[in-house]
Every structure is written in structure tokens, then in C-alpha cells.
Amino acid sequence: MPASTPRRGFLKGAALAGAGLMTGSVAKAAPLPIPESNTVMGDPIPAESYGLPTEFEKHVKRRRSDVFKNKQNFSDWSMTPLQHQIGIVTPNGLFFERHHNGVAKIDPDKHRLVIHGLVDRPLEFSMDDIVRYPSVSRFHFMECSGNTLTDWREPKSVTVQQSHGLLACAQWTGVPLSWLLAEAGVKPEGKWVMFEGGDGSGHLRSIPIEKVMDDALLVYGQNGERLRAEQGYPIRAFFPGWEGNTCVKWLRRIKVVAEPDQIRGETARYSDPMPNGKWRQFSMVMECKSVITSPSGGMSLKGPGLYEVQGFAWSGNGKITNVDLTFDGGRTWREAAIEGPALDKCLTRFRYRWNWDGGPAKLASRAMDSTGYVQPTVEDIARVREISGFVQHHNGIFPWTVAQSGEVSNAIA
Amino acid sequence: MPASTPRRGFLKGAALAGAGLMTGSVAKAAPLPIPESNTVMGDPIPAESYGLPTEFEKHVKRRRSDVFKNKQNFSDWSMTPLQHQIGIVTPNGLFFERHHNGVAKIDPDKHRLVIHGLVDRPLEFSMDDIVRYPSVSRFHFMECSGNTLTDWREPKSVTVQQSHGLLACAQWTGVPLSWLLAEAGVKPEGKWVMFEGGDGSGHLRSIPIEKVMDDALLVYGQNGERLRAEQGYPIRAFFPGWEGNTCVKWLRRIKVVAEPDQIRGETARYSDPMPNGKWRQFSMVMECKSVITSPSGGMSLKGPGLYEVQGFAWSGNGKITNVDLTFDGGRTWREAAIEGPALDKCLTRFRYRWNWDGGPAKLASRAMDSTGYVQPTVEDIARVREISGFVQHHNGIFPWTVAQSGEVSNAIA
């Protein structure tokens, strides 16, 4: 528990806030009523199944953006319902999607992956070859470079699903790329590696060889099972802590090259306008960021009292070491408790017991990572970058207001 | 990588075993053929969705036992396909089930949980009260006391799903029971706590107060979302490292008592026959255990060469510190690599690069936990317990044979 909130404090608060004590004694209800579920047969187990959530949870869905609607839905995205996520693992069924030409359908038995270009020995792999190969499993977040793209000039997002839902976390399983490139033998002039997808857009990215040899993976497993089709089945690239679009899905080709390809996804897209009118390219690391998911936009607090404020912090550069919270719009800050395991380049949950006095409040979180980097304010970012159009790679501190009514709203602006 | 297997060793092995090198150069295939998936539009993203696995993975299912078939399927179980599990997180849709009277259907808005008995202040909670309460998220395995129940006198299980599939792992989210009992105030004479479910069987277990106050949870979240109906929606008890049947599902009543209830589930069931004719009760800790999942029964090795042997180790008493493997039926043992994070009372994956010479082999794993306890042999267990009927709490070393043909089979006997 956060040292900042003594246990008694919560008990008193709980009494006020109806989180237990005020729901009262059962004496009045004795003898306990027998619910109908105790009196009937339940549903039997089918011979075989892949289970689904109960009907009572069917409101928990990933959704296309209601804020910025595409004219068509082939180059599109769906967003993770972070306000409903419990723990750090995002269920595969709720993991956000981003496609440039819809979801490709690939038969794993026919699929081939090729490593070629500036290598001593070009290689071709079937999926059986890849899965037969030794593997590793690692927990990492994935964030789209355009997460929190739309709110900086005009706060249109109502919920944290709309503002930050291009973010999710999973345990990924696959083969370290450095092992396979060691088998192919990278020539001295090979400084970049190009990854191409087998989808209709032939999505393409060039990655510096240093990152590829450091911790890049060829991923075929996610959260205990094979990749879902919308996540690149049967195989995708994965670069821990780097923008999602580098993690090329439906991967069919890996080419070692001397220079980046300078393709559309590296020039007209995924690049950042600077104050001097120039554009920054290859800014692929998703820097330290955090957001409060409870309370968050669209929620309503049920009167004054103690609430456990929760949220996520993450960094593409390392582990989360600290998360501070403000309840007065940034005038004062208090330290939240970080829940372990706090893993490298992984969603990390923070918790803080907040006694809401019932007055207006402005909440925000500020994360720090193991490199010492502190999540910047919107103003900090505006000083070094041009905030115009869709702002890629925006990791600014994001506030919510709590009105006297208890209603929680997007407070950017 | 395991120090015991030098990198070169794997490369050579891979060359032999077709895990890369032998799939050959792509030169012969240049220019690369363009797959059809590169030439067509993919599937669009629906407005909202809860995603499912691709059709190419529909063979991965949890299944009722083919080995020991129930006459009816209300008191029944389904088993996790461990041979297909990647990483340590079991997808909720594949998490094994065990019900005494089918799956109860409970409306969370109507559900009430009561804490009463030897307490100063009996309490009643709605689900809103529970979820409003501060929570924790922790990774833990869950194993049925009857896992590997049927094979000890006659090896009938073909696959590891059939032999060990009453095992799974998840990140669980809920409220530590010690916090709520502190609010209720446990009287000095309260030494046990009885948990009752809201299902048709009214499943009941008594748990010593020490375990309840140590690390027991009231769980409503599993792997990032609310519990599935078959896992006790909207709320269940969870005792890390203890047999699954203690983790009462559809929980409606918690009663602090002086003595255990000595109900059927504590006498005629879940108790262990001893050599002296007496029965051991309340043996609820699932002790240190492991099993090789790849290669495992029903699989077939494709010729001599290097294979990454993988499996799971777990202990209800702590963390896994060592896993040894034998390939000659227990004559010699080698140390496997343990993949982190190796968490408390959690599935832990081990890996070892084995160069199969193509001859008959007998594989098994032997785990050790942080208490120094070593997983016993079947003979060790037979010396202290009566191996008759269904053997509960059997954590014996479990072997697979690899025939010259490459076929892998259950080698218990």
C-alpha cells in the first residue's frame, strides 16, 4: 500500500464512500436468502470449446474511433478499452488493431519468410521451421505512434479508450532476430534492415541494424496462443518499445540493406514536424508516458470519499521507476505506488488512494523511467516540436477534470 | 541460452534438423513470388468487436477428458491444451474448467457477498462495493487437485492435455481477503473460514485463517478482464498455490468459524489414502511439479537433430529455482534454462536444447522450488502414500518416451 495513505484512512474513507462498511451488517438480512443460482443446474461443459466472456460483460469491446472517423475502413484502427482493463495483460480479443489495407488472410502451411539482401547466406523459412526454432517469451507493451493523436488542439475524446486506446500489452513469443541473422551472416555494409508485410498494402519499414540485433523478435505467439489474424498471423516483427507500425505484420520478407528505403511510411508518414519547418524522421521509440484510467473520461464518482486512482505507465526506453499524481492541475504532486512486476518496456500499473473532498479537481499522472527521463508536459513538447495536424509520438501529461457532480472529463486545452 | 548447449552446437544441429539452414537459399526462388495476400484487400475492422482466433488455429481447444469420461457432464471438467500453450499466460478461452453442478449464471447487479460468523461486524457487499475497493493483480498458476489423476496404474493419457491439462496460469485481480476481514474484525476464536459458492452444488470449503490472512484474494479479474462465467463470474475465492477446488467460484458467503466444516469435499473428496489405511485431510497445497510439454505425447520428431525441449514447472510453496531434465530414463540429469520472470506460485517455463541422436529416449523433468523441495518420483510418493483409485495431489516425475520413429508416448508404468 502507498505509504502516503495510512490503512485507517481508507477504512474511514470506505465508511464514507460505501466501499464496504456502509453496505452494512447482514444481521438484518439473516437468514441469508438463497439465490436462484443455488437451486438450479448450471450449463454443462461442451466436448470442446474456446470460451468467451459472459453476456454481462458484452459492453467491453475494442472499437473504431468515434472521434476521427475514416471514410473507409481498410486503413483503419480499433482501440483497446483501457478503462475496463484489469492488470497489465490485454486480452487478445480486446487488443487494438491498426491496418493499412485490412486484415490479411494467410495459410501458415503456405507462408514463407525470406531473409536476404546484404547477407552471406539468404534463407527461407516455413512456419514449421520458425516454430521449431528455439524461442523466448517476453512481456512488452505495444503503442501506435498516433496514440493520443487528436486531442492536443481540441479535446474531442470522451473516454480513455478514445484518447489512449492505441495501446496494449501482451506476453510475446518468438525467435530473437539476432539468432536468425547470425545464421544468415550480415555483411559489414548491412546497416539497416527492411521488413515487408504480406498484406494488401505491402507495409514496409526500415530499422537500424543496432535495434534488430539488440532485442527485436520474430513473433508468432501472443498471450499464450498463436497470433490473431489482425495481429499479423502467422508471424510479425516486434521491436520492444518502438512504435507499433515498425512491428510489420504478416511478415514475408526481411532484407538487410545499407540505407533506409525512405518509403512513404518513413517520410510522409510517422515523421514529426519541427518548429524550424523541417521534419524529424525515424523517431521510432515510444518515450515514457502514463495515463490515469480510473477515474477517467465518461466515469462518474459516487460522492466524496476514498477512491483508488489507477492507471498505466510505460516507456520504450526501459522500466518505470516512479509515477507522480496531481489532483490540483499540477500545483502539487504525490507519489503513486507501482505494482510489480515492473518489467522492461512493459505496461506498469500504478495505484493511489485518493480522498476526494467533493470539490472540483484536475487529475494527471507523470511517469519517470529507468533512464531518468520524466514524462513532459504539453508545453515542454510544444517548445521543441510543431504541434500541428495529427501529432505523432505525443507523450504529454494528460489531465482529467472531476466536476462537483462527480463527472470526469477530458481536460486537455 | 543454456550454458550446456553452445551456440555453434545449435547451428550445426539446425542444419541437420531443418530449423533454418537446410531450408536453403532463396537464390533459386528469386525473384520472390508475390503471395495472393499482397494483391487483395483484407478484411475491414468492424465498428466494435471481441476478437477470436483465426480459423487456422481452431484445433486448439480445451476439451473434456477422453480418458475418464463422466456419465453426465454437470460435475465435470475440461482440460487446457498445454501442448499448444506459448509463454506462461493461459488464454481465458482455453483455461481448464471444473464444475460440481455446471456453470452458474449470476447477474452481477443482483449478486451479494456476505462475510459473517465469528466477526465483530458482519458485512454485505455488492459487486460495485468490491470493485470500488482497492485491489491487487498477481500472476499465479491454478491446478486441480486431481491433475494427473488417472495414469499412475495404467498410462491411458495420450497427450499432455489429457495427463496434465487441469493446470493453467493467469494474472488475477481482486481484493486481499485480509483487508476485508480487517474491516469485519475476526474474533479470537475464529480459526477457519468457510467459503460457499452460489452454484447448484453450493460448493463449500473450509480454509485455515492463516492462509486466508496470508495471501488469499477475492478475485473478479483474470488476464485483463472480468472473470469468465465458468471461472466463477462475478467473483471467486483464490488461494495462491492451493488446489483449485478451494478457490470457490460464484462466491456468495464467507463465514469465519472455529473448526472446519468436515463437509464431503473435505472427507470423502480431496483427501489422500495413506499406507496405514487412514486418510489425510486438508492437504491443499499443490507441491512442486513439472512436465515436459514439447516434445510430449502424440507429437512426432522429424528425424535426428537439435530440438528445444520445453515445459512448465510450478510450486504452491514458492518460486521455481531449478529444473533438471533426463533423456535416459533418469540415469543422468542436465540442468534446463529457466525463463523469467520466475514468479511466486506461478507457471515457469523451462527450455533446453537437446540433440536427439535418433535412438530411443526417455525424457522427464524434475523441478526444485525456493524451499529446497525436489519433485519426487512415483516410487518416492508410493513409499509414503497409498496409490489406489484416483490419486489426488500427485506431483510425481512424469516421463515421455521417444521411439526411433520419432513418436512420443506416455511412459508411466
What can you tell me about this protein's structure?
Chains A, B: Residues 283-385 form the Moybdenum cofactor oxidoreductase dimerisation domain. Chains A, B: This is Sulfite dehydrogenase. Chains A, B: Its cofactor is Mo-molybdopterin. The structure is a homodimer of 413-residue chains. Chain A is mainly β. Chain A is 11% helix and 30% strand. In chain A, the strands form 6 sheets. The first copy, chain A, has a 5-stranded mixed β-sheet with strand order 6-5-14-9-10. In chain A, strands 7, 8, 11, 12 and 13 form a 5-stranded antiparallel β-sheet that branches. A 5-stranded antiparallel β-sheet of chain A has the order 20-19-23-24-25, with no helix packed on it. In chain A, helix 4 crosses helix 5 (209-215). The longest helix of chain A is centred in the N-terminal third of the chain and has 11 residues, at 7-17. The interface between A and B is large, with 124 and 124 residues. Strand 1 of chain A pairs antiparallel with strand 2 (62-64) of chain B, so a sheet runs across the interface.
* Secondary structure category of chain A: mainly beta
Strand residue content of chain A: 25-35%
Q: Rg of chain A, please?
A: 24 Å
Number of helices of chain A: 6
Please identify the oligomeric state.
homodimer
Helix percent of chain A reads: 10-25%
Main pleated-sheet profile of chain A: 5 strands, mixed
Shape of chain A: globular
Pfam family, one (chains A, B): Oxidored_molyb
Keywords (chains A, B): Metal-binding, Molybdenum, Oxidoreductase, Signal
Protein name (chains A, B): Sulfite dehydrogenase
GO molecular function (chains A, B): sulfite dehydrogenase activity
